[in-house]
Design goal:
Immunoglobulin-like, mainly beta, 117 residues, 5-stranded antiparallel beta sheet
Length: 117
């Protein structure tokens, strides 16, 4: 899933205070954590000029937390930042991820990922 967030704050006088943009992508929709180097992890990559904090959690279909995202060190171009979840210790199934963005932009991004082992 690819997304684009835009926040525009305007004073009552109509002057532009600032604009903030974050472009992001979450992939793949199905992960197969078998250490073959293909679709082993769920990745959230993003690019922004603003100082923001990004964190993520993963839940099973009963709402129990099963994992957290970690900082991604090798971020693919054109993005500058990223976090990932490796599905370690979970069974095959459907999981819900929740990515929280806080700072100038405050947003929660929810989605579904399928783990196929």
């Amino acid at each position: 899933m690819k997304g684009f967030l835009f926040l525009l704050l305007v004073l009552f006088s109509g002057l532009l205070v600032f604009g903030s943009v974050i472009e992001y992508k979450v992939y793949p929709e199905v992960i197969t954590p078998n250490d073959d180097g293909k679709n082993d992890i769920l990745v959230f990559v993003y690019d922004t000029a603003d100082a923001i904090e990004v964190s993520g959690k993963v839940f099973d279909i009963l709402g129990r937390k099963v994992g957290s995202f970690k900082k991604l060190t090798n971020v693919p171009s054109p993005y500058k930042y990223g976090i990932y979840w490796d599905a370690e210790g979970v069974l095959s199934g459907i999981y819900v991820y929740q990515i929280e963005i806080s700072g100038i932009i405050n947003r929660i991004i929810n989605g579904i990922v399928i783990v196929a082992k």
